[in-house]
């Protein structure tokens, strides 16, 4: 196997001081990185999209796992270090300089691919919701393995009747299975962020037919916009929602956080049809 220089040396040699503006918190522990790369199962010979490779810690782990990696990095200071990595794994790493928010990953792969990323916190949720919102379902990606602030990770996997349950949980869970795969202590990063992190693993589920995501969002926006109020109050502004609740036998005196994802989906489905 190719011997690579320690990541700290790569960073020092290329002058890659972490930029706060770019949400840079690097991971150096190669064993931890190998464990993260193993979360989606074997990646040997699989296509992988990595967002924000930075100096390439997770990228190395993905390459060691045998993946064909396409990486999108915004910080051009990282490109020479990534070019060295590409040389060490000929034909296995393609680096695109750019903003992942502006690149549709479907344009990068002919078939199925997995997404892994130690996401920049400031863009993580936007990328995640974007990947969940494609009209075509199941999507072309086979899994997402993403680092979030632990608080955001908990909101993604939250169950009803908990304070973390809200719009993000409903959006994530109506068409995917999301689980908390690993907690990562803040001290694992350089520099350490203020809060703890956690990795969420997401695989698509079959989306219920006849539901418009926009309608579902309108319903959850209304319901959780006033989460302490009863639905009959919080959903007043969503045309047809109160009739839909009645038709479905959902008590309008309940509050948003008591509704299951399936119940939200059934309301959205009724409104999509109406
Ligand atoms: N993957 C590396 C690691 O685990 O050590 C770096 C992770 S660091 C939290 C996030 C990386 O994403 C940085 O390298 C940053 O430059 C990059 N980045 C930030 N915003 C981005 C964007 N919109 N598109 C692509 N890369 C971005």
Provide a descriptive summary of the structure in words.
By secondary structure, the chain is an alpha/beta fold. The protein folds into two domains: 7-204, Vaccinia Virus protein VP39 (Rossmann fold), CATH 3.40.50.150; 213-273, Orthogonal Bundle (Helicase, Ruva Protein, domain 3), CATH 1.10.8.100. Helix content is 36%, strand content 19%. The protein has eleven helices and nine strands. The protein has helices at residues 7-13, 30-38, 57-64, 79-88, 121-132, 150-157, 167-174, 213-225, 231-234, 241-248, 261-273; strands spanning 26-27, 47-51, 68-73, 93-97, 113-117, 141-149, 176-184, 189-190, 197-204. A seven-stranded mixed β-sheet has the order 4-3-2-5-6-9-7, sandwiched between helices. A two-stranded antiparallel sheet has the order 1-8. Helix 2 crosses helix 3 (57-64). The protein is elongated, with a radius of gyration of 21 Å. The mean pLDDT is 94. The structure holds S-adenosylmethionine. Residues 22-27, 51-54, 57-58, 72-75, 78, 99-101, 118, 120, 123 line the site of S-adenosylmethionine (SAM).
In brief:
The protein has helices at 7-13, 30-38, 57-64, 79-88, 121-132, 150-157, 167-174, 213-225, 231-234, 241-248, 261-273; strands spanning 26-27, 47-51, 68-73, 93-97, 113-117, 141-149, 176-184, 189-190, 197-204. The protein has 274 residues and is an alpha/beta fold.
